[in-house]
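Quick question: what would this complex look like in 3D?
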Amino acid sequence: MRVIVPFTARDPKTRLAPVLDADERRRFAFAMLRDVVDAVAAAGGTPELLVPGPLAPPADDLVDDSDADPLDDLPRTVDERPLTPAVNAALSRLGDGDVGELAVVMADLALATPEALARLFGAGGDVAIAPGRGGGTNALVVRDPDFRVDYHGTSYRDHRRIAADAGLSVDAVDSMRLSTDVDEPDDLVEVLLHGDGRSAAWLREAGFAVDTGGESRVAVRRPDG
Amino acid sequence: MRVIVPFTARDPKTRLAPVLDADERRRFAFAMLRDVVDAVAAAGGTPELLVPGPLAPPADDLVDDSDADPLDDLPRTVDERPLTPAVNAALSRLGDGDVGELAVVMADLALATPEALARLFGAGGDVAIAPGRGGGTNALVVRDPDFRVDYHGTSYRDHRRIAADAGLSVDAVDSMRLSTDVDEPDDLVEVLLHGDGRSAAWLREAGFAVDTGGESRVAVRRPDG
């Protein structure tokens, strides 16, 4: 399965600004991208980057600099347009007849495991969707050229409606890991609790820890300095 | 599989107070409980209530009053203690030898489906855990009398440690539906987007709707009056 991974390195993850500065957000975004690309490949997928411009990863941000960077040598498509038209252009290859299915997996699914992605790739339906928390579409598989994405607003509901309007079947993939896109400070707890890749290592290295504090939902804590 | 469903009708769901008054929170809590009990039974489980006192559901809160109330005739254990000791007392039946496994499923998993619960019941391990968002333990299956729960704090991590200390294997169940316990106003969006039972119907009847508003994560909206 070819798997499109949209990613932008231009001021990424702005909603993490309360806890990470711009350079940190960029490094953390690359750590998550590498985790996603690794998991896609381990699930048997063939990752391809969809980027708005040249990719310039921070030179020194690999957790273990003996690692090969999984971003090296990945196929990449450069498309300057916003996410929705860029993904739809990528999906148009389905109409050419040489590709029977394509997946789109967001680059901030830091909890994605090969097992969770294999469930997505193996799900049925003309369209298979892994919903994100709050009604987003974190990952999907498309098997029909009549389907188009629209990531604005409540995209999970919109994607179901777009599929229904085109007479296409939809399978939903029930995965906590794929539902967790890392956008806001509260999401970092999930990475610390359930992640075991570069993203979790990066956060720990940056001083983040789980703060139980007696609350029924836990927060992250980062000591000053 | 016998499935313990802890529930309290004493001022439930206090963190929903910003959007629901005390009577509404009680009615909504019962709607969620009924959804969970229905889903457990449809998944092949045998639900049993664990309550701190007599259960007195609002007389008029069934969405369709021709429905039979699934709470009628359910086995129930009354235990006045807090959640952790009450659940541990219930789990002590595993040591008696007449029960080989027990599940504990929280009463506020309004998105639980028979399919998601069947994955939990069918998971392997001496202990199978469906983690909640923020490090909680929303549902688990216990097959060894040496395991004890501790719901305080980051219970998912604590439960893994308790199991490891007792030499028990743990299987984690990756389910967005089981990870969504409905505690806070933001959680209501998930019920509206993914629920199709009494809880979602109750919220719609109470005037809640999904408010897309152009945000990347959506909120709930409840018109005044």
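Answer marked as accepted. Helices of chain A lie at 22-42, 83-91, 114-122, 155-165, 176-179, 187-194, 198-205.
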